[in-house]
């Protein structure tokens, strides 16, 4: 561990906080300093279940974490409906903010958070872990090789899982007052983010939600999809995604270009922590008489020294340390990525509300 690590406070004891608390302990430049929830009993239970050190401060409210002068940064896995209130409060207390996705219910809410972070010189990053895996950087490096892949033409992503019946009764992701975006916000965020990543964060011109929409009796989105289109002057590329709480597990990403294609089936959570892989082809054609292919897909394996969530924490802490020790300005890359993802997600939702009509972004 670094001599002067970034001291994290966690606000909320959601299940994902278990994973990130472990990541904070694994990141060499970070330490878990405090955790708080709505009651001291909940916080104590979380600390015991996750084997937290006795040195971690245990608080019975979110306010106490934010008031602690020793907390440098907060990780916030609260329900989306609470993000604006508590994220803005954290920024006003000069706490750097690692915020779970979806970042807000709409871009107007996210803008309030980002404005507060900018006004208080606070680093912002959302909790999209897969972006920090070295496999992601390797894929981007290869896709940038115009000789290997050519022009980007098509992107498709999926994120689905089939939970237990208890999920549909009690999980916050199907409660309209807590996470009204449902599957679109929870796992559609990854699909939209992957499409934008492949398109170098160039926003599509139009977004059209697909009629394959399923809602719960409370009106929460359980499954949905959408198509994106870029104008001809932007090479006329297209993208599609599908996300669902009603299908077996999938985390597919496919990127097709004029001369090659790239595929992986675990882009959000790799099959293993210590390495991940993807497959690609370049220059493949059909064999004579269309009896096969001239090339098979090649596999690329990428080692990972730390789990991707620990790499996320490490990068976030590095940025915070730079601000603290060298008077650096917050890195704008991460809030810009979050805002573009939120903008597109808003457009998908608006298209649904308009009866699946195209929406300009």
Q: How would you portray this structure in words?
A:
The chain folds into 2 domains: about 150 residues, Rossmann fold (3-Layer(aba) Sandwich), CATH 3.40.50; about 200 residues, Dihydrodipicolinate Reductase, domain 2 (2-Layer Sandwich). The protein contains 11 helices and 16 strands. The strands form 2 sheets. Strands 7, 8, 9, 10, 11, 12, 13, 14, 15 and 16 form a 10-stranded mixed β-sheet that branches. The longest helix is centred in the C-terminal third of the chain and has 21 residues. It is globular. The mean pLDDT is about 95. GO terms for molecular function: nucleotide binding. Pfam families: GFO_IDH_MocA, GFO_IDH_MocA_C3.
Sum up the structure in keywords.
alpha/beta; 11 helices; 34% helix; Rossmann fold; Dihydrodipicolinate Reductase, domain 2; globular; 10-stranded mixed β-sheet; 6-stranded parallel β-sheet; 361 residues; 2 domains; 23% strand
Question: Brief overview, please?
Answer:
Residues 6-125 form the Gfo/Idh/MocA-like oxidoreductase N-terminal domain. Residues 138-262 form the GFO/IDH/MocA-like oxidoreductase domain. With 361 residues, this protein is α/β, with parallel strands linked by helices.
